[in-house]
Each structure stands twice: as structure tokens, then as C-alpha cells.
Amino acid sequence: MSKVLLITGASAGIGAATAKLAAEAGYDLALNYRSDMQGAESIAETAHNLGVRAELFQADVAEPDQIDAMFKAIDARFGRVDALANNAGIVDQGAPVTAFTHARLKRMFDVNVIGAMLVAKEAVIRMQAQGSGAIVNVSSVAARTGSANEYVDYAASKAAIDTFTKGLAEEVANQGIRVNCLRPGITDTAIHAKGGAPDRASQLAHKIPMQRPGTAQEIARAIMFLLSDDASYITGSTLDVSGGR
């Protein structure tokens, strides 16, 4: 029986790259997306061409009811969740803290923190019943750097994910479930355009010791390693994939 991997935010960027590598590795895929159905369908088609099963699950992880409905649908279609790439996340327009609004902060934490925690919770419940599982929470090097004058709220939300990972990992370590955190550095994906700076990755390359941004595929390879049996004695850890930054 193929393992089932749930990827949140699977329609583009790191999520899409992870889905492609997972399909190549023989995972069946539960692909979550919020609004980019076309992107998700393209990833599912790629997976099907690689001979694995891929099902789409539309849900906004900022909405608890939609998370519940997604997991009920996954239960009906797959009957299990063996692995989770907890990847869905958002960034807002670059701004100083003095320009933040309550609505901006609420959306940021609803998606990046509360949504991620609730998705992990539902995955853990299923993994506990199975007696095994692996989770990778996608954070960011911004959790260390703070992203002053740009995305302090995003950085703070990712720092919360770092701490959540450590606590959850210790709770379930004796239940056959591993939980790790991956912190990408500056990566060349569309998230920068969503934050109003489409060329940000290349413009900041000089700040990276390796002098270039990472690719979604490089981040995905690290996610797949942490989910794999090659990382069987790794839990509660945070891995920076950041070109040395």
C-alpha cells in the first residue's frame, strides 16, 4: 500500500515541487489548495502520469470548518494520512510594524499559525490511530532574522511554528510520529510577488553566502528527506535550507 502524503498549499512553489518529488517517490497525494485550482490540477496530472494517485482538496486553512471538511474527505477517499507537508502560508505587502492593521495580523496568524496547528492536529489524530507518521512544518529563516521593515508579522508567525514543532514533536515522539521543521531561506517562488516584490529573491542574493536564492526543488528535497525513513531518528529538529544565511 502506498503511503499517503497531505501537502497544504500544493498548487505552486514549494508545495508543488514537493508534490512532484513525492510522486516520483511513490507517494499517493492529497493536494490541498485554496484558490488556484488550475495549478493544483496541473500537479495532480503530473502525479497521475508518474503512476500515483492524486486527489484535490480545496480548503482555506484559515477556516477551521474547512479544515474539518478536508480531513473528512481525505478519510473517505484515502482512509489514512501517513505524512504531512504543512506548507500553506501567506505573506503580506512589505511594511513597518507601525503600518500593520488588526485585519492584516489576524489573517497572517489565522493562516500561518492557527491553520497550520489545526492541520497538524488532525493529521496527528490519524497518525496516532495508525501508530506512525511524519510531519514537516514549513517555517522560514525569517523566524531568525525578524524581517524588519518588511514582514515582521510573517517572521513572528514562523517563529511560532518553530516552537510549535518542538512541543508537538515531544508530545508524540513515543507514538511513532516524527515532527520536524524546515526553514527555507530566500527562495525563488511567486510568494515574493504576492508580497509586492516580484524581484526580491534576486535582489537579495548578495546577502546570501552562496550568492543566489534557493529553488523550490531544493527546499522540496529537504522536506522529502525529513519525511523519509532516512530521517528515522530525527524529530523536534529545525533544518535551515538557506544558502548559509
From TrEMBL:
Keywords: Oxidoreductase. SUPFAM superfamilies: NAD(P)-binding Rossmann-fold domains. CDD domains: SDR_c. The keyword Oxidoreductase applies. Residues 3-207 form the Ketoreductase domain. Belongs to the short-chain dehydrogenases/reductases (SDR) family. This is Glucose 1-dehydrogenase. It comes from Shimia sagamensis.
